[in-house]
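#struct-pred

JT: dropping the chains for the assembly here, can someone run the whole complex?
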Amino acid sequence: MTKRRLRNIKESALKAFFFANGIIAILVLLGIFALLFFSAVPAFREIRLKEFFTSITWDPTSPVKAEYGILSMIVSTLLVTIGALVIALPIGLGVAAYLSDVAHWRVREIVKPIVEILAGIPSVVIGFLGIVLFSPFIAKVFGRSNGLNAINGSLLLAVMALPTIISISEDSLNAVPPAYSEASLALGGSRWQTLIRVKIPAALSGIIAAVMLGMGRAIGETMTVLMATGNARAFPHGLLDSVRTMTSNIAIELGEVPYYTPHYYALFAIGLVLFIMTFCVNLVADIFLKKYQEREL
Amino acid sequence: MFYEKFKKWIAIAELALALVFAPILIAQGRKMIQVKGSDTMINLVQILAEEYMNANPKATPIAVLGGGSGTGITALINSTCDIADHSRDFNVKEFNQAWERGVKPRVFAIAVDGLSIVVNEKNPLNRLTMDQVGAIYRGDVKNWRAFGGPAMPISLYGRQSNSGTYTFLQEHVLKNKNYSPDVKEMNGNAQIIEGVLADEAGVGYVGVGYVVDKATGKPMKGLKVLDISKDEKSEATSPMDKEAVDTGKYPIARALWQSTNGKPGSDVAAFIQFELGPEGQKIVEREGFYPLGAKYNEANAKNLK
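RK: done, full complex below.
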């Protein structure tokens, strides 16, 4: 066996190994989708699709009549998530602009890793903050008797989405070719004008991707919202109502549900809806990210 | 040739795997009594188990898990626990399921609980009738003003549907009607207490063992336990009044149950006997619940045989 042949074998073996790794990720994704899909389908033997998506009452253990409507939960999930983005976007963009344009490089070297550490805080800890810190604060500010509501969840999710938004926005602001800002400054634009009219529009696709990825994280987050939003099943009428998101509902009920009942399958159906929602959000994020990377070349 | 090169790494990997899995294998080899279920009972049963193991160091160790009565009963049906804790009775469906799988539950009462309705200390109300509690939790009455309290919207705290207390209240107080969708569903008794302590307009329901401050034997600071009466005419009593709970004057008293699959084996029976005996019942009382009366003792003795 010559050395070269040996190397060839090694080469192709490694290639196969990495190919297999790539395939595994896809297989896992397809597997999860298939599992969710086939566990969700039996739910619709007993629950009408229309009821499932348009009824606001979810009460599968009701002694009167079991009801399986998830509209309240979808609205709650969107309410909490969009609330989180409304809070996180200006702050995140501000921090990103500060880091990329204003901050001294030394400050940046310190602040950026700290922001990234924020992403590593366990969600249960953030949820705890929501109960002991944000809840009394929200109750006082809004004159309510308690602060276990959608806005509490939004605030906490905003904290959780910030690192993603800051990190990716800052990268995309930095990736704007220096020639752009130089041209703007040379034409007499102030630094503020340069940032707002030139750099941010140029980095827009990256910023949108950052927001979408942050949103993906917020939609799927479970523990934090479970702890902080009160989990009432009612249809939310505003950010100050107690809400139950789709993730919380699955977490609350899957542990105790009798197997192979409509209730059990319905929980998987909620999971499927959630999966499709996060998939779409991530897909959109990916498309924007791709656009911005392509332009780089 | 490759093997030679990677031999060292393979050996290290094997060692690491062995280190990771050995404790798991050892733990599985040792026999344990698994107790699972009611969240209202978990603290009580945990302490009972601890004291039992202290008193009998050679006895089979006991592991106590929560999850709610429904979870415990399901675990017994699926044979994944030895004892199920439950603060409500088996329902018909569960009973049928158990029989289908060859599980024949035997039920023991281990303590008596006065289901307590709690509000914040700042709430001036002192008593409610059963119907009023039902109306509050069904969502028929939405403001404390209706009962002569402050003009504040009632903020409801409750348990999740796997809770035996949730089911018990629904059957006995809500008259089998739906809960209001505005109930904030908390993850256990302690969280309800926390919620009501922080919420002037809050109301919650918990086992009596959770309202007592163990140091003083009085209700916890900041919390008010309401007196409950059967109807307008009868006298309202507190779940902390032992006599009222014993005589059934307190209208929402209930037994706390443990179930085994068929006649309990000797190690499980020994633990249950400890719980039912004088030592166990003393712990029950210390934890804020009530010891069993003659009626339950008789039934228990029959089930142990």
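JT: nice. Chain A is about 75% helix and 0% strand. The longest helix of chain A spans residues 3-40.
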